[in-house]
Fold Methionine ABC transporter ATP-binding protein.
Amino acid sequence: MDVLPGIDPRAPLLDVTNLHVEFRTQYGVAKAVNGANFRLAPGETLAILGESGCGKSVTAQAIMGILDTPPGYVTQGEIRYRGVDLLKLTEEKRRKVRANRIAMIFQDALSSLNPVYTVGFQLGELFRKHRGMSRADAKKRSIDLLEQVKIPAARTRVDDYPHQFSGGMRQRVMIAMALALDPEVLIADEPTTALDVTVQAQIMGLLADLQQQRNMGLILITHDMGVVADVADRISVMYAGKVVEEAGIYDIYARPAHPYTKALLESIPRLDMKGQQLSVIQGLPPLLTDVPKGCAFNPRCRYARDACRQDPAPPAYAVAPNRTARCHFFREVIGE
Ligand SMILES: Nc1ncnc2c1ncn2[C@@H]1O[C@H](COP(=O)(O)OP(=O)(O)OP(=O)(O)O)[C@@H](O)[C@H]1O
Ligand SMILES: [Mg+2]
């Protein structure tokens, strides 16, 4: 593997600070990511949570360096991998990071696999291209990987085409592709939404196992608070392009500090509330070309007061060590 100059093994695995991404469209400038901050350690799972359109995938694309440009641009911030700011690298170096150090699984496995090549060929390509392996060795490694992601009869299935696999099995193939070059960071963007509930749980379990075996940092993007409870160590809750709350999983569930987090939690169906009205958050997230003044959540917030409707937006208050919330009234929210 090529050595990336400037790598500091003692620096945080991934450290995103003040990330801003905007899309310049004919309807105006959409501020999709508006000062996002988070950090990831080896072996840690960070869940990024939020409603549709809040900037989760765009954040992932910016980290991977696969943003749709134009119309999307990173306008501010740093994305440091082991101390190296990825945003300052040449495209060629960036591509190496993408292949070897930071990998991503997309929501839609079918459209990410090439229908005209066998799964084994697509996996083997990675080993041949990036590791200079022979065809035979690459095939051996591919079978190995398919076994690691628990595909039954890997030895014969390696010669099958993507359409011959079920949805869940295809997602396992995608996981195998993402892990092929032993990345230190894996970003999984809604890896299970296209699957039914039982298969979802199996895939999440597999991801968690593989992450532990490999001591990878995992960023799990989802809009489902129920999914993250079992696997995440920390959660970043995003709203309108900002991380509005970041905390350890236990704190978030026990005592949310941001009204938006609290509302998300209240919207999870619970068995002991059977028959009762499910609480949904009133209203819709704002258009990113037209974010409300002050706190972007204020029109939907039951705690909102004058201060919340005025600029500047609430800063990331330190609620406790390793815990922030962008709410002027976090003490009141957490205390309830
Ligand atoms: N290619 C694009 N062109 C223009 N605007 C875009 C583009 N991609 C994303 N955006 C803008 O960025 C915003 C955030 O999109 P993003 O895909 O990150 O949402 P998300 O949080 O991943 O939502 P979901 O849960 O639906 O996947 C969108 O609301 C949209 O305004
Ligand atoms: Mg998305």
User: Anything to note?
Assistant: The chain has a mean pLDDT of 90. Residues 23, 25, 30, 32, 50, 52-58, 68, 71-72, 223, 288 surround adenosine-5'-triphosphate (ligand 1) (CB under 6 Å). The two ends are 52 Å apart (CA to CA). DSSP finds twelve helices and twelve strands in the chain.
